[in-house]
């Protein structure tokens, strides 16, 4: 009788383990974390959330903008603070994320719709951002944007 109870107990635990495992909170992958950071950075730019932007940019951050000019972390923060365009929507899609140990490259497309000089304007930009894992968090060290020609 004791061995039968023991066997039933073992079977009960073995059968319920998958159910308990599926109820645990899943940990987001690095790809999910990086896509989330890209989306939060985009939102922070329009809200002028300088603290968030400063937290995701490495001190040695360098951006290459769509006009070919370059800027550092200070310039990126200044651009965010000075931004005054009316944006109706800013949607990111077509994410590709590649992880190389403690470095990641994120490619995505940003579709902007807003008003410029009283007329509706639409702009599509392709981005390539390079991230480095430091002290348990991702920081962006480089960003390049390219304006996609209108068809």
Detailed description of the structure:
- 11% of the residues are buried.
- A hairpin with a 2-residue loop joins strand 3 and strand 4.
- It is built from four helices and six strands.
- It has a six-stranded mixed sheet with strand order 2-1-6-5-4-3.
- With 151 residues, it is of the alpha+beta class.
- It starts with a helix and ends with a strand.
- Residues 6-12 have low confidence and may be disordered.
Backbone shape: globular
Name the quaternary structure: single chain
Could you give the distance between the termini? 79 Å
Poorly predicted ranges (pLDDT <50, ≥5 residues)? Answer: 6-12
Mean pLDDT: 88
> What topology, given as strand order, has the largest sheet?
2-1-6-5-4-3
Estimated helix fraction = 25-40%
Query: SSE order, as H and E?
Result: HHHEEHEEEE
What gyration radius follows from the Cα positions, in whole Å?
A: 23 Å
Total count of helical runs of at least 4 residues = 4
Tell me the β content. 35-45%
Largest sheet: 6 strands, mixed
Q: What are the main properties of this structure?
A:
151 residues, alpha+beta, 6-stranded mixed sheet, 6 strands, 38% helix, globular
A few lines on this structure:
By secondary structure, the chain is of the alpha+beta class. Helices cover 38% and strands 44% of the residues. Residues 6-12 have low confidence and may be disordered.
